[in-house]
Structure to design on (595 residues):
């Protein structure tokens, strides 16, 4: 039960009713996209406090600053790194590695997207890979659709492999105290299986027909990937800092270093290295530009959401729902894990996975006692992580990266429509969840 | 003084059915930066100019919103660029004309009109309020001539 919560709600309304109604309304408004989700989350958070469910102090307790710090730090690092052209270099290098063979390029871009999404921010990864993809497919005179479709899947699958790959994992890791290595050991193996298996239906649907004439392939082969690197000094600095940050994530847990500290330290170091040679005026512009790369809309959305969920948690509703869930699964850990995975996957396909995970975290924490302790419920966390991350592949609205790619495809004149995408993506997502369920069963039960 | 006093009331215009090759040749021949596109009723639709031609020869991924910020790794020849233009030369100019250019009414204040000209870096259509009829174009040359002869 949350401490420091107020019990005097406005107009004498029952706290559970007020918080529950506000939460449902918040969720519905986020789904309908009638208003920007950050605005909705912030407004609801304020109402939780103004309405008396929480005090300002207790509301601040509900904010997971580790998640915010990790997200912000990584966004700064990626925002600076992208200026050196390394993403474009990787995409072109990989395309030339397979002699500009259309199917080979698709596979290589999938791998590049998955790896980058695992280590860096999903949205930035697809924002940088999608334009190069279009460039290459335009040169080959083939449709970009299969490539963009595959990259959506790659970003969500890759993102599910590590602590930092996807916001749901960051939130779960932070709430439970899981380390970078915990995610690597428990989730990376299954993503290495799911990714190639996902390519099979993509090959059967589109891959077999991908073809390009030799002269068009030569156009791609003529690209000089080395010249995509526009700032070699920045490249070296960025790679150095990213390597340090990754080492920090891997060993940090043993030294009681939280991921946010590692990420923000990396961001600070890269800012120093990047700005040291500049004069004060140039530094001012560069630093301003670097901080503009942070998705503040996402950050404020998280802040508001944390407070809203904390307010709900303070009324005890989530504990009650947790007990109902346990009753439904007969207090069986295996059944509960499978149920969480499938429910998370379908919910994440249809609605934003971030508010869903934010709600599920305290719910699962409430189950700890029933299952005999924190160690016992670990499979539930992996279920939630896999379900919510992979579920994002189920529809265009399932993940932010999906919408980014869809928006890009629209501007490129090759729109990815909601229903046609879902007709292929949803079954493919269910397939990945089925594999994950088998993995969960064999690994933890 | 207003936009009406700066504009050329009889600008050369293009039709929406003109094809790119014809329009491009005309622009190149007369060294026009851009020309307005009007339909058969004289209704302003957009502008077509050298910037449109550049857009047609540049890789799509480089010119679109949130596209590639730089393309130093592309080393195409003039022949490659011409080939890209040839692929669309029989398409109507409407596929790449710019319709988002800010227009002004004839009574728009002169200095404000000049500021818009400065910021948009292209000739400004003067359009009749309430309808879409093109009344004239304000170009750098017209403005320069009128200021210097004042």
């Amino acid at each position: 039960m949350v401490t420091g919560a107020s019990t005097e709600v406005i107009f004498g309304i029952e706290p559970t009713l007020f918080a529950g109604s506000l939460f449902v309304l918040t969720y519905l408004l986020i789904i309908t996209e009638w208003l920007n989700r950050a605005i909705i989350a912030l407004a609801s958070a304020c109402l939780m406090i103004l309405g008396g469910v929480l005090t300002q102090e207790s509301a601040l307790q509900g904010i997971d600053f580790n998640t915010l710090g990790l997200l912000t730090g990584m966004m700064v690092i990626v925002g600076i790194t992208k200026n050196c052209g390394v993403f474009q270099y990787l995409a072109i290098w990989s395309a030339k590695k397979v002699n500009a063979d259309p199917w080979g390029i698709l596979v290589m871009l999938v791998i590049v997207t998955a790896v980058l999404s695992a280590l860096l921010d999903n949205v930035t990864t697809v924002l940088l890979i999608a334009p190069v993809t279009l460039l290459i497919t335009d040169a080959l005179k083939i449709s970009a659709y299969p490539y963009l479709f595959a990259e959506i899947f790659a970003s969500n699958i890759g993102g599910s492999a590590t602590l930092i790959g996807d916001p749901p994992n960051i939130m779960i890791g932070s709430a439970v105290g899981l380390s970078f290595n915990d995610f690597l050991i428990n989730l990376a193996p299954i993503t290495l299986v799911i990714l190639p298996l996902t390519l099979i239906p993509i090959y059967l649907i589109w891959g077999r027909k991908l073809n390009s004439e030799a002269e068009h392939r030569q156009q791609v082969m003529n690209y000089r990937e080395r010249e995509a690197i526009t700032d070699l000094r920045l490249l070296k600095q960025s790679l150095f800092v990213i390597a340090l940050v990754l080492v920090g994530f891997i060993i940090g847990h043993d030294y009681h270093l939280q991921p946010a500290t590692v990420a923000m330290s990396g961001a600070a170091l890269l800012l120093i290295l990047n700005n040291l040679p500049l004069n004060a005026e140039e530094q001012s512009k560069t630093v301003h530009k670097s901080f503009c790369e942070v998705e503040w809309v996402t950050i404020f959305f998280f802040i508001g959401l944390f407070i809203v969920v904390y307010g709900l948690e303070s009324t005890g509703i989530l504990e009650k729902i947790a007990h109902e869930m346990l009753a439904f699964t007969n207090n069986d850990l295996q059944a509960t894990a499978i149920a969480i995975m499938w429910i998370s996957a379908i919910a994440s396909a249809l609605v934003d996975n971030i508010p869903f995970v934010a709600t599920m975290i305290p719910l699962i924490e409430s189950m700890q006692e029933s299952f005999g302790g924190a160690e016992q419920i670990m499979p539930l966390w992996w279920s939630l992580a896999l379900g919510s991350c992979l579920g994002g592949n189920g529809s265009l609205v399932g993940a932010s990266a999906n919408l980014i790619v869809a928006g890009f495809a629209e501007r490129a004149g090759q729109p990815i429509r909601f229903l046609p995408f879902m007709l292929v993506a949803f079954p493919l997502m269910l397939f990945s969840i089925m594999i994950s369920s088998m993995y969960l069963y064999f690994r933890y039960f | 003084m207003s936009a009406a006093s700066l504009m050329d009331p009889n600008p050369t215009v293009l039709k929406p059915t003109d094809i790119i090759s014809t329009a491009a040749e005309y622009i190149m021949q007369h060294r026009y930066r851009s020309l307005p596109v009007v339909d058969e009723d004289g209704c302003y639709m957009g502008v077509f100019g050298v910037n449109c031609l550049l857009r047609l020869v540049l890789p799509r991924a480089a010119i679109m919103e949130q596209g590639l910020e730089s393309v130093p790794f592309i080393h195409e020849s003039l022949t490659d660029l011409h080939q890209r233009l040839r692929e669309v030369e029989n398409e109507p100019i409407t596929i790449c004309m710019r319709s988002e250019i800010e227009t002004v009414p004839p009574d728009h204040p002169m200095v404000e009109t000049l500021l818009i000209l400065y910021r948009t870096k292209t000739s400004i259509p003067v359009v009749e309020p309430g309808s879409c009829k093109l009344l004239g174009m304000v170009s750098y040359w017209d403005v320069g001539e009128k200021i210097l002869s004042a």
